[in-house]
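Write out a record, focusing on structure:
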Amino acid sequence: MRNNLFSHVKRIVVKIGSGVISDRDGLDTTAMIQLTRDVETLLERGYEVALVSSGAVAAGKGDLGIVGRPRTIPLKQAAAAIGQSRLISIYEDAFRAHGRKVAQVLLTRDDLANRRRYLNARNTLMTLLDYKIIPIINENDTVVVDEIRFGDNDNLSAMVTNLLEANLLVILSDVDGLYDRDPRGNPEAQLIHEVARISTEIEAVAGTSGSDLGTGGMATKIKAAKKASLYGVGTVIINGRTPGLLPRLFDGEELGTYFLPARNRMAAKKHWIAFTKKPRGKLFVDDGAMTAITEKGKSLLPSGIRGVDGGFDRGDAVRLCGLDGEEFAKGVISYSLSELLRIMGKKSSEIEGILGYKYGDEIVHRDNLVLKNQDRETETED
């Protein structure tokens, strides 16, 4: 029974897709009101709930005469600017009918990539939950550009799950879950009720299909589930268009597709480095340094670096690559590009003599480094 799997759940992130609360003409107010009733049922049962809701672009595109998805970033930004207030207003009215208050939280990737801003965002969201106020989170589409966008709210919901230290991610879609083949063209397609590990085969089954209403398809939902899994959190994908399905899920019904959490949970900080902090450059290291990092759990020292690419400052994330250019890790660097160009290939004992100061012996400390196959490592929470 699913309720045994959910017995530990206290805090839930619910991601609401555009296809759940809108159609080609704009927002579906009736669907939004029904959804708030379902969320209210969970709140009455004592769960804490944060919503990651799409729909701003769908709410505003009609005023611009747009049919389907806006084709350019400026059009998307304009539609979001019009529609975001409309979206939050409907949520506010719907929850007020149940005596609840909501708060709007708009984020960009830069907000979560900077560790201090990340922690500030977490403190704000935790405070809202403490005061029984429902956070309604969305990407800040009015200012987003390709360099700082999350890409889709499935991805954002996985990051928020980590940010809030939630126990479960529920993705409300316009389909019943993950099928073994595309159900739109295969009437014999079977719903996959449980996924123990998100393998390449599962990712292939998900495909890359999306819709005119949103930026994500099943593939982005699988990626979100994988990110949540590595943080030790399960994910359920269910059909958000079916009224009452959300409470039924917590009644123990085997609905949708449940992705089990990974057995080896990744530490919160390393999860942030792996999935939230955007890399700014590459370091090319020799075979000895790569072996020391991947097989012996060592930090990256300047002596092992043979080349660099891109521009970065101290505290930025960088990709660690072998001499063949293949990435094997990602980490937070302790020196800027200009500093590194002077000390790479040198011994750690020479750093202070060359620069006149030293932040540390390591260019990338092991504690700030994540291997590409980190999901097969055992980490402890920091």
Notes: The chain has two domains: 2-263, 276-376.
